[in-house]
Structure formats: C-alpha cells, structure tokens
Design goal:
alpha+beta, 6-stranded antiparallel beta sheet, 17 strands, globular, binds zinc ion
C-alpha cells in the first residue's frame, strides 16, 4: 500500500507568496511493520551485507555489560502486540534491566544494530556519492557516544550489484542500552512531499505576516509550525526541525554547511501534527500506529543525521531535537 500525505489544510503560499522562496522537498519514509528482506528498503530489517565483509562493531570505550537483553525486548514487543495471557505477563515481569553481558569489558567490540537500509531506486531525493545506490545506517544502541552521549551512528554506502552473496547470519548485540533503540522491522513507503523552512529561519518580514495570519486563540487552528512547515516522522532530506534548541549551524570541519541526510523520529505523527497523517492511516490515527518503528530518540524527539556535501568521508554529525 502506498502512503499519501493529504493537501495542506491551507495554501500558505497563496496567503504569503514570499514563502515560495522557502519551499523545499523531502521524502517521508512512512515505515510500517512488515517483514523486509535484504533486497528491500527497510527500517530495522536485515541488510544487504556482503558475506565476505566483517560486520561493523562499536569499539568506542563505554560500558556495554548493562542494559536490556535484545531477545527480551523482541519477545516483549511480540507478546504485547497480541493479547497476553497471565503466564506471558508473568514472563514480561521477569524481564529486567541488568548486567546481562558480564563478560564484556568496556572496549570489547560489539555488533552494531541495523537501523535503516535505503536503496536510491526506492527513495526519491536520496543522492549518494559516486556509483553507490544503497545507504545502510547502523547504530550502537547505548547512550555513550560523542559529546551528547548519544547512540553511535555509522553510515555505509555501497553499490548493491557488488554484493554477490549476502551475509546470512547477521550478528547482533546481546544487550542494548535502551529498548527504544531497537527498531521493529518495517517496510517503507517513500513519498516525496513539499515542505517549508523552519519558522525561525524565515525572514523577519514573513514571520511578522505569519504572526498576523495565525489564530493564536484557537488551538485547533492551522499552525505554520505543525501543519505547514516540516512533516513529522522518518524522512530523507528536506529541512531540519529545531523545536528544542532553535536553529543551529551544522558545519563540517572543512567549512561546508552540512546537509540533512536522514531524520529518525520517535513518532510518525502526534496530536499537533495530525494533518500529516497519511490518508491510508486515518482510521488508525488514534492508535499506536504512529509509533511503527518502536524507536524513541531523546524525549520523543528527532535524531537528525547530517553529512558533508563536499565529501562523504568527512565525519557525519548527529543532532537530537
Ligand atoms: Zn558503542
Ligand atoms: Zn566536509
């Protein structure tokens, strides 16, 4: 099934034509629970990883003994998706955070967890350098990396035709720092959409006009930020949203302004962003359908991955909002 974002409730460029200079495009990924294979674009699915290539591991020194058992995270989700019996509830209550991998030192390599795999043929607007046609995103699921003490994101890109044999047994960590860093297997329904720049980055004159235009008395009224600017949910490219810190310059060490590659979102929509619920999901809008991946970053926030447009070998950066 495809996913279709409905027309915006208001044609804001008709009201404020200058906003056309701040129009952009992104690709909503619309992850939905499924059983993707290595040949599919996915979130949390098996990767098209060459049999002869070592699986990537985290070697950054940090504690990795303590957390939740990955197997228990998966069991709990499977059980809770149905109607649990009393025995199953009993089982779930026995699942606890703990020192589940006591044999691991703080520098033992641990396998990374697949987060997303995106084929350029499936995702309009995904441009990879050279002749790569496949982007693979993995992370180390512990809050222990970088200055922000976040997950450790790793990006790989490859030419899918180079992979003649796929690694059959894909390694996994035994323990994860947070259950919310384990993505449920999802298939994707990428959709190119139009969006507008984050409000704080508009010109002063346009912001003044938006202030006049918006009805601040009525909480159900159309809002630029929630309805007309940037859609919620997992997304490739497009504009960055800055609800927590306000806009930041994300600049590479080489001086280039970095580009937003991927947004990982804790929710596909919420109360404030209901106008973005795809037409096909309207009947399920009030259910847990808005959290298909099971991933939560920050406090129900977004994790944005930026890359250097000049040279992808320059370190990428992640920003949590
Ligand atoms: Zn790590
Ligand atoms: Zn750079």
């Amino acid at each position: 099934m495809t996913r279709t974002t409905s027309e915006r409730p208001v044609d804001i460029e008709a009201a404020i034509p200058e906003l056309s200079a701040y129009r952009g495009a992104g690709t909503r990924l619309h992850p939905r629970p499924g059983a993707p294979g290595p040949e599919h674009s996915s979130v949390g699915g098996p990767l098209l990883w060459p049999a002869g290539e070592p699986w990537p591991q985290c070697t950054v020194p940090h504690k990795r003994r303590f957390g939740e058992r990955l197997s228990e995270v998966r069991t709990a989700r499977r059980v809770l998706a149905g109607e649990p019996t009393e025995e199953e509830y009993e089982l779930l209550r026995s699942f606890k955070r703990g020192r589940h991998a006591p044999w691991l030192t703080d520098t033992d390599p641990i396998p990374l967890l697949p987060v997303a795999q995106l084929y350029t043929r499936d995702v309009p607007g995904l441009n990879l350098p050279g002749d790569a046609d496949l982007l693979q995103v993995l992370w180390c699921p512990f809050n222990a990396h970088g200055e922000e003490r976040n997950v450790g994101v790793h990006l790989f890109r490859r030419r899918s035709s180079d992979v003649t044999e796929v690694l059959a047994e894909q390694p996994e960590p035994v323990v994860v720092g947070r259950a919310e860093y384990v993505p449920n297997p999802c298939v994707l329904h990428p959709e190119r959409i139009t969006e507008h720049q984050w409000g704080d980055l508009l010109s002063y004159a346009i912001r003044e006009r938006l202030d006049e235009w918006e009805d601040w008395e009525d909480e159900d009224a159309v809002s630029y930020q929630f309805d007309l600017s940037i859609p919620p949910g997992w997304k490739v490219g497009g504009f960055a949203a800055w609800p927590v810190t306000g806009p930041q310059d994300v600049v590479c060490g080489c001086g280039q302004r970095m580009e937003l590659l991927l947004t990982i979102d804790s929710r596909e929509w919420d109360r404030g962003t209901r106008s973005w619920v795809p037409v096909e999901d309207r009947d399920a809008a009030d259910t847990a359908a808005n959290t298909p991946t099971g991933v939560v970053v920050g406090r129900n926030g977004r994790l944005m991955i930026f890359v250097c447009p000049e040279d992808w070998s320059h370190p990428h950066r992640t920003v949590l909002q």
